[in-house]
Amino acid sequence: MINERPKIREHLFLYVQALQLHCAMTGLCGVRRDREQRLASWLCLASDAADARVLPVTHDYLSSVLGLRRAGVTETLARFEEQGLIRKTRGVLQIDERKGLKQKACCCYRLVSSAYASAQSAVSAKEPVS
Length: 130
Description:
Elements: H1 6-32, H2 35-50, E1 54-55, H3 59-66, H4 70-82, E2 86-89, E3 92-95, H5 98-104, H6 107-124
Antiparallel strand pairs: 1-3, 2-3
Helix pairs in contact: 1-6, 2-5, 2-6, 3-4
């Protein structure tokens, strides 16, 4: 069935490539980067994926997905808030200064974000998927 739809196959292939890079970079980032860089990268990627500046996440959830202690997540988010990068309320984070948050993110964010953007632009540049 997928061979009958080459445009869909190509779209899926490009997305899977970006997803594989994302998985590899997440593993690498987890052992090589500090908590601030990892958290900033995750927030930027989540914001990109949701196409929103408001993210419904808790400190506990961030702790779980990043493999960090909850207290460390809370401390880092408080520092981001002091710097005017985010605002946090119960269960919600709002990104106020995206440029500053991107500067705190490690290079993993830029690589993964570029891979997803390339996959999207390659598909968008062609005829609509039917």
